[in-house]
Amino acid sequence: FSPEPEALALARAIRDAFALPENAGKGVIALDGRMVERLHLAEAEKLLAKAAIIGA
Prior knowledge:
Layout: H1 5-19, E1 28-31, E2 34-37, H2 38-54
Antiparallel strand pairs: 1-2
């Protein structure tokens, strides 16, 4: 299993958006016109960790 490039790009965007100072402590943010919750951040981090392990 190798994550799709689009999925990895979205995961990075979610991670980076939650890392911004203005989003610190927020449970929900807007990203590219969509609402993104911290649960999406957790899933994004899992996907990025898997990709790092398999070298994707």
